[in-house]
């Protein structure tokens, strides 16, 4: 499951409806919203949730609503009438604080329930079993963290997810957006603190490599290019990396590549590059190869001529190797996520 977040601090605009439709078209199939953000007017939640539920149904997308305490009652709904939520398009409730395990267990027989992934304990799981929860309808949802320096540590996140997977929970987490950042801090809404200043695409790929089952964009927007990149990874397992040209031979890079199943320590190696029909490549720009340099072996390398690499660990210059492009700074973390056999593309980024 991959999704977006839409919050109910404003009426649903045409731009937001277009964003929902565009995300759905690109293969994102879930919407997350919250009913307990204090700066929002609780009295408006019911009508706005009706509108959002309608858009979710129209686009055949799941709608997960974050609640805590008496949020449902304040908005005119009830745990005793969950069928009303289902009817308007709500497919799940993410349970935050002040909701006991007995209520969670009962609700799990009506719709998908997201429990707090970061705080659930073995005792909670024991209680949920005692209350006859439908575990097929339970998922573990991590929080997002608006305030800088409060996001989860990577080691703790991995350890917690191991515990959750051992108990057969699917795990969900958030990545930051890069446009329409969430009020009032505008500092991104990641689960992992280290993702706060990274591009959403880097954070997205990182979470998939960590085995996270569902990933939602915590903020209310990402740009079109990032949406396309995420879609291409979801649908075709391709990681797109942006790079600036250094020589005219950069045009030889712009096709689909596959990292070798036995890549070297220092570089991503395009598996088939040197076996394709290529022109004679003369020595040019044989400078030091810093991390992120994209290289093509020239004619001094004999049968290796045409080999394409993305440098992971900086290397000195070699008269047999041309530096034809450089991965942009924002995408440098991606090269450590291109593992053996991974498909990737190199996209031209103008200076």
Supply the key terms.
351 residues; seven-stranded mixed sheet; 10 helices
Characterize the structure shown:
This protein is an alpha/beta fold. Helices cover 26% and strands 21% of the residues. It contains ten helices and 15 strands. The protein has helices at 14-25, 45-58, 71-74, 82-87, 101-107, 122-130, 154-166, 200-209, 224-236, 332-335, and strands at 2-5, 30-34, 62-67, 92-95, 112-116, 138-141, 170-175, 214-217, 238-245, 256-258, 267-269, 293-297, 308-311, 321-327, 343-348. The strands form two sheets. The chain has an eight-stranded parallel β-barrel, surrounded by four helices. It has a seven-stranded mixed β-sheet with strand order 10-15-9-14-12-13-11. Helix 8 links the parallel strand 7 and strand 8. Helix 5 (101-107) crosses helix 6 (122-130).
Q: Which helices and strands appear, and what pairs or packs with what?
A:
Blueprint: E1 2-5, H1 14-25, E2 30-34, H2 45-58, E3 62-67, H3 71-74, H4 82-87, E4 92-95, H5 101-107, E5 112-116, H6 122-130, E6 138-141, H7 154-166, E7 170-175, H8 200-209, E8 214-217, H9 224-236, E9 238-245, E10 256-258, E11 267-269, E12 293-297, E13 308-311, E14 321-327, H10 332-335, E15 343-348
Parallel strand pairs: 1-2, 1-8, 2-3, 3-4, 4-5, 5-6, 6-7, 7-8, 9-15
Antiparallel strand pairs: 9-14, 10-15, 11-13, 12-13, 12-14
């Amino acid at each position: 499951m991959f999704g977006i977040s839409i919050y109910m601090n404003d009426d649903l605009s045409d731009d937001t409806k277009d964003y929902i439709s565009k995300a759905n078209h690109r293969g994102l199939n879930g919407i997350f919203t919250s009913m307990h953000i204090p700066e929002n007017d609780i009295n408006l939640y019911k009508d706005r949730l009706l509108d959002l539920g309608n858009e979710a149904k129209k686009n055949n997308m799941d709608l997960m609503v974050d609640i805590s305490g008496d949020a449902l009652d304040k908005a005119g709904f009830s745990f005793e009438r969950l069928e009303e939520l289902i009817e308007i398009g709500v497919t799940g409730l993410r349970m935050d604080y002040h909701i006991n395990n007995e209520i969670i267990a009962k609700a799990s027989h009506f719709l998908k329930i997201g429990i707090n992934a970061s705080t659930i304990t073995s005792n909670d799981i024991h209680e949920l079993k005692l209350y006859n929860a439908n575990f097929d309808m339970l998922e573990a949802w991590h929080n997002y963290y608006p305030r800088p320096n409060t996001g989860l540590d990577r080691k703790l996140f991995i350890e917690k997810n191991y515990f959750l997977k051992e108990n057969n929970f699917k795990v969900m987490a958030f990545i930051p957006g890069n446009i329409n950042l969430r009020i009032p801090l505008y500092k991104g809404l990641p689960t992992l603190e280290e993702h706060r200043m990274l591009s959403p695409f880097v954070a997205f790929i990182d979470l998939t490599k960590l085995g996270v089952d569902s990933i939602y964009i915590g903020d209310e927007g990402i740009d079109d290019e990032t949406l396309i990149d995420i879609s291409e990874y979801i649908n075709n397992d391709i990681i797109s990396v942006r790079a600036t040209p250094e020589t005219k031979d950069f045009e030889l890079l712009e096709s689909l590549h596959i990292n070798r199943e036995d890549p070297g320590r220092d570089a991503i190696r395009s598996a088939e590059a040197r076996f394709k029909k290529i022109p004679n490549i003369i020595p040019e720009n044989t400078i030091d190869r810093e991390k992120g340099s994209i290289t093509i072996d020239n004619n001094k390398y004999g049968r290796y001529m045409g080999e394409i690499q993305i440098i992971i660990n900086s290397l000195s210059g070699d008269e047999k190797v041309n530096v034809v492009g450089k991965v942009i700074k924002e995408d440098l973390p991606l090269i450590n996520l291109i593992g053996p056999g991974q498909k990737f593309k190199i996209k031209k980024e103008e200076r």
